[in-house]
Amino acid sequence: MNFFLSTDLCIGVNEALAVHEHLQALGVLKPGVIYDASLSENLYFQDVLRNINAGYSNGVIYCNEFKGEPTYRHLENVAEFFRREQPDGLLVIGGGSTIDLGKGVALLLTNNVSALSLKGFPKDVNNPVPLVTVPSLLGSGAEVSFNAVFIDEDEGRKLGINSRKNFPKRSVIDPKLSMSAPMESVIASAMDSLVHCVDSFGSVKHTALSRIFSIEGFQRTFYALQQGQLDRAEARLDLALGSVCGTTALMNSGDGPTNGFAYYLGVKHQVPHGLAGAIFLKEVMRYNVSQGYDKYALLNPVRKEVPARECALELLEQMDALYRQLDIPNLVPYGYGKGNVAELASKASQALSGSFGGNPVEFNEESARVVIDALT
User: Fold this and answer.
1) Is 173 helix (H, G, I), strand (E, B) or coil?
2) How many Cβ atoms sit within 10 Å of the Cβ of residue 329?
3) pTM for the model
4) CB 266 within 8 A of CB 158
5) Structural domain includes residue 164
6) Residue 137 and residue 19 share a domain
7) Residue-wise pLDDT tens digits, 225-257
8) CB 227 within 8 A of CB 314
9) Are 20 and 184 spatial neighbours (Cβ–Cβ below 8 Å)?
10) Helices (H), 177-272
11) What is the Cα–Cα distance from 217 to 2, expressed in whole angstroms?
12) Each residue of 59-110: pLDDT tens digit?
């Protein structure tokens, strides 16, 4: 069994106000700061930024106004901006896309190469400058992972820069920073966490230890969503812990069809990654249960002394109720109907063979048709 997690965590209400102290503890003398433009009007973030400026008068600040997931071209432009300023550390405050951008910049600051040359799983790269992440949405888990997603515009594909050297040195998780985010973004991000937990749980590469994180992450996130009180800091803390657990499990196991479908739909229709995964999650789970996979019973937060299949079916009923509560859409709003199920299944299965192979039961083009048909 192999298991890794390489980021120091500091979680707490108001912890972001001391983020400059975390930079100082890492020996950073001149930080670069990247933050989401969506945070500009957030009064709490303004206090955080004020403290950073007080601690570092020489900080180099960049507001990321890029919409959607970053492209390699955008990464190249932002890296060039910071190369001119030569910071010796990087602080990133924002959602998963901005944090991924920060990972790419941190690596490019010590590797004088093009962004595209690092796509995939680069080898023999220099260590990046120290990176501190502060998430403003809780669910993607980007704040503790080494993966960084980027879109190759020429190929129209989501790829990434995936090096274990990308691990942030420290992540400061403060639920107050997420309080001004639109509720639909909070929900989509939390659903992304559920996808991570379910895919990693069922992955053919799971371990006993990764499953502990999958189960804890799922139950914390599921409960927080069920309660419908996401405007409370306590619920956001549950989302934070669920996000860390789900991403840790995913890194130590592997993904499955749901995450693969999310990548495909996200690129084709610019659907936020968390929402794209949510669309497919429940029906992928239902397909697996129909094929005799009953181990989802272990994810059920209210497990009873009943046969595993009954417990797994009860979880699906709870998922149905949650989807109605959160108004999670199907594929119809994105132009899919009964007439193009076969086409989508064919294209998805060709593009996602790796993700399909991680499913706990055989998952092929015909399986994809069953899932997609249920969503149209």
Assistant:
1) strand
2) 14
3) 0.92
4) yes
5) yes
6) yes
7) 999 999 998 899 999 999 999 999 999 998 899
8) no
9) no
10) 183-202, 208-227, 233-251, 257-269
11) 19
12) 999 999 998 889 999 999 999 999 999 999 999 999 999 999 999 999 999 9
